[in-house]
Amino acid sequence: MGLLVEGRWHDRGYDTAGSGGRFVRAQSQWRDWVTRDGAPAEGRKRGFKAEPGRYHLYVSLACPWAHRTLIFRVLKRLKDVISVSVVHHFMGANGWTFLAEDDATGDTLYGFDFLHQIYTRADPAYSGRVTVPVLWDKKEQTIVSNESSEIIRMLNSAFDAWGDASLDFYPQALRGEIDKVNALVYPSINNGVYRAGFATTQAAYEEAFGDLFSALDTLEDRLSQQRYLAGDRITEADWRLFTTLVRFDPVYVGHFKCNLRRIADYPNLSNYLRDLYQVHGVSGTVNLHHIKAHYYGSHETINPTRIVPVGPELDHGAPHDRARFRKAA
Length: 329
Ligand SMILES: N[C@@H](CCC(=O)N[C@@H](CS)C(=O)NCC(=O)O)C(=O)O
Hints:
This protein is α/β, with parallel strands linked by helices. The protein contains 9 helices and 9 strands. The protein folds into 2 domains: 2-157, Glutaredoxin, CATH 3.40.30; 172-325, Up-down Bundle (Glutathione S-transferase Yfyf (Class Pi), Chain A, domain 2). It has helices at 64-75, 115-122, 148-157, 175-190, 192-197, 202-222, 236-252, 267-277, 288-298; strands spanning 2-5, 8-11, 34-35, 48-49, 55-59, 82-86, 128-129, 134-137, 142-145. β5 (55-59), α1 (64-75) and β6 (82-86) form a beta-alpha-beta unit. α1 packs parallel to α3 (148-157), α4 packs antiparallel against α6 and α7 (236-252) crosses α8 (267-277). Bound molecules: glutathione. Residues 1, 28, 60, 63, 65, 95, 129-133, 146-149 line the site of glutathione. This is Glutathione-dependent reductase.
């Protein structure tokens, strides 16, 4: 695990010394937008026009943030429009690598060995973390964005000339509700599991743990009244939660010590997880081998033996009870 300082790679873990043992996630630095007409998004200088075949995603199948972008690419039918390279699940001293084995594709654009070479290709003097997902522009040979929450908004609408324009995961009428749900789910759940797992003091861990399970309890309650987080249709808020839920029982319960309850212990959340998993195309984006091998194998400070637990038994394909919310015809 490491980062770039003025374009040079340094093998260095997260620094929690100045924050009372708390894990504080760094802001993503590449924040441009692909738009339909190529005009720069509000407040941005550079514009990127949506075109088929022009953009590429660098992802890890283990990473919940990258997973969001893969789900949007599949559901919006953009597989032939946006290409993908998958990094290897092991993230060690060189960060994410392009070792092409075990369902990792290698770097299908440049044949680089390490993801950090993609960052320095875009900016030879870049300083910061080298994260997935990356949305890459093959034409300008640069990074458009490395912020998953913004990449999924681009995939949701900018490529509708080629993708499935009938699906909108951020509909105008529900934006207020979706933003409200995201404002709970991101800090307490998506990032909450990392805040618990990467904490280096008992107090910081317990703070994250409390926030996490209180947010899960809130959502369990919400999902007793409605099928999805923002009401009766699937939105971005659901896919953002899904990628954390699907990693929860196999990884976060043990590896990140998020063990008050499993998702399997929540009737509504567990049925909801199966409901989303069974949406056509989604199961193909879930690679539990990469997920388990990455976390247990890469975080040496948390799991020095790198032993990957064999369980738990999971069956996301089992029947769920969420159709009980189906509207009367
Ligand atoms: N805010 C970013 C976070 C992405 C992120 O942290 N990805 C992790 C993998 S799950 C990563 O690449 N970490 C490498 C590092 O921090 O050095 C996003 O949502 O796109």
